Amino acid sequence: MENFKSGFVAIVGRTNVGKSSILNSIAGQKIAVVVNKPQTTRTSIKAIVNRPNSQIIFIDTPGIHKPKSKLGTTMNDTAWESIPDADVILFVVEATSNEIGKGNQMILNKIKESGRKTILIINKVDLATKEQVLNLIETYKNEYNFKAIIPTSAIKNKEIEVVLEEIEKNLKEGPAYYSKEEYTDQTLRDIASEIIREKALKLLQDEVPHGIFVEIEKMKKSKTRENKPIFNIEATIYCLRNSHKGIIIGKNGQMLKRIGTYAREDLEKELEEQVNLKLWVKVKEDWINNDQIVKKFKTTD
């Protein structure tokens, strides 16, 4: 048997390049919220992948973007801080680009500063021509000595094993940091909150989603009248203004009901138990610039 390896792998990139989809594909189950909208991931989420000769801890970071609030700045800080702390970096870019671009150049400069072993993932190859992909590979090859450059499509689950093998090659010998039963460092409350937020992101109009956060008020396991286990979950969806509150609730409460129904279905799959979910909506004006709230999204070790 080979010597056991372990290490931390940061997944970095601009917003909406598919980092969370890649994380979920690698982990083989849903760890991070996946929505076709930018700035979905707000914190660094860990996924633990146990292999015969290694344990790889993936850190999905918020997408790098131009911040317009304290929340945006905190999200960027979380992503930047993950680069020098990682053993290996997965730098994710879109195959549809014809050049490196300003945002990717900023990330590349941080990677160069850190000198970390980096694997370039060119994602969404199904949306680009072969010529586009080959040109992009050459462009990036001239910029940094990547350990590997892997064209992939996270949604189609291509090349995931290749990515894992490349990471293993670049890890050092080390212990397993987590037990083999663990697959994430998120608590059940974190997971419940993210599932509810994901359903809201998918269902709501464009101007609302990034102005919401979800707080789990109560999460308690009890028994039904038939003596079956059930999770009673109560959560509040906070938004920025009254007009948003109306959209989230919807006519006759229909939108909130839909969010709740879809969230409950996912929660029951995740928890493998029946779920009784109650949702409320409250306005907390300008919370994205409120230090007390924003600090909840800061990385803690």
What does this structure look like?
- With 301 residues, the chain is α/β, with parallel strands linked by helices.
- It has two domains: 5-173, P-loop containing nucleotide triphosphate hydrolases (Rossmann fold, 3-Layer(aba) Sandwich), CATH 3.40.50; 188-297, 2-Layer Sandwich (GMP Synthetase, Chain A, domain 3), CATH 3.30.300.
- Helices cover 35% and strands 25% of the residues.
- The protein has nine helices and ten strands.
- The strands form two sheets. Strands 1, 2, 3, 4, 5, 6 and 7 form a seven-stranded mixed β-sheet that branches. It has a three-stranded mixed β-sheet with strand order 8-9-10.
- Strand 2 and strand 3 (54-60) form a beta hairpin.
- Helix 6 (188-203) packs antiparallel against helix 8.
- The longest helix has 18 residues, at 254-271.
- Residues 32-43 and 67-71 have low confidence and may be disordered.
Percentage of residues in DSSP E strands: 15-25%
Q: Give the terminus-to-terminus CA distance.
A: 32 Å
Number of strands: 10
Class by alpha and beta content = alpha/beta
Full CATH superfamily name of the largest domain: P-loop containing nucleotide triphosphate hydrolases
| CATH topology type of the largest domain | Rossmann fold
Determine Rg (CA atoms, Å): 20 Å
* Biggest sheet features: 7 strands, mixed
CATH class of the largest domain: Alpha Beta
Average pLDDT over all residues: 80
Number of domains: 2
Low-confidence stretches: 32-43, 67-71
Based on the structure given, which CATH architecture of the largest domain is correct?
A: 3-Layer(aba) Sandwich
Please bin the fraction of helical residues. 25-40%
What is the tally of helical segments? Answer: 9
- SSE topology string: EHEEHEHEHEHEHEEHHEH
Overall body shape: globular
